[in-house]
Amino acid sequence: VQLVESGGGLVQPGGSLRLSCAASGFTLSTYAIRWDRQAPGKERELVASVSRGGGNTYYADAVKGRFTIDRDNAKNLVYLQMNSLNPEDTAVYYCNAIGTQYWGQGTQVTVSA
């Protein structure tokens, strides 16, 4: 059972990235999924979540209007589209199957000029 995040990188302020969360060993559609992030020296925080079917989403105030979470259950993938990135978005981003101990290893997002 594994979750693997990908898509992070270095981007300039105002830029965009699309993160992916892939599952192996279990069916992702069974679970609601959340994306969290942890910046250096800060606690991990919830960024966004999506229900099992994708019809319900939640966004932290800090990312509302800039980030979009969606999922493709046929491909066993969940995405986090991040637009209008700013340096405060710099963090390691993790995905989690809510209610489980399944976490990925994280993907680094760095927003810097």
Strand and helix map with partners:
Elements: E1 2-6, E2 9-11, E3 17-24, E4 33-38, E5 45-50, E6 57-59, E7 67-72, E8 77-82, E9 91-97, E10 107-111
Parallel strand pairs: 2-10
Antiparallel strand pairs: 1-3, 3-8, 4-5, 4-9, 5-6, 7-8, 9-10
List keywords for this structure.
10 strands, mainly beta, globular, six-stranded mixed sheet
Please estimate the helix content: under 10%
* Gyration radius over CA: 13 Å
Strand order of the largest sheet: 2-10-9-4-5-6
Largest sheet: 6 strands, mixed
Separation, N- and C-terminal Cα atoms: 37 Å
Question: Average pLDDT value?
Answer: 95
Please give the number of β-strands: 10
Low-pLDDT segments: none
What structural class is derived from the secondary structure elements? Answer: mainly beta
Shape: globular
Which series of helices and strands comes N to C? EEEEEEEEEE
Number of continuous helical runs: 0
Beta-strand share of residues: over 45%
Can you give a write-up of this model?
With about 110 residues, the chain is mainly β. The chain is built from no helices and 10 strands.
